[in-house]
Amino acid sequence: GDGPVRDPESDQDRDQDHDQIEILYRNAIVIDALVITRGWDEASFTTARETGYTGLQTSLDSGNLTAALEGLSGWNQRIEENPGRLIRADTAADFVRAKQSGRLAPQ
After folding, report:
1. Which letter does DSSP use for residue 56 in this model?
2. Sheet containing 55-56: which strands, arranged edge to edge?
3. What is this structure's pTM?
4. Closest CA to 55 of 5, 9, 103
5. What is the per-residue pLDDT for 63?
6. Cα radius of gyration (the chain)
């Protein structure tokens, strides 16, 4: 009949741990190095914002140099067109600026 007795302190401890993890993650600089960046659209911006990511390691087409340069140009254009949401990450300091300003930093 009687199931295991739950210790209310353990539930409280677990909730406190969860809260501390949430705070740590919110304050951390998080970079997604496995993002698929093709077909970037409004839903992509929304998803990135909801994840709490600070940066993205963008992948360029490896088929040939021309395709890779076109991909790089596309990201530069996307960054220029979205200055309130994106900041180009060329240095570690750019990720810090992105975190402080609530923007996403593709690299």
Report:
1. E
2. 31-32, 55-56, 105-106
3. 0.77
4. 103
5. 80
6. 19
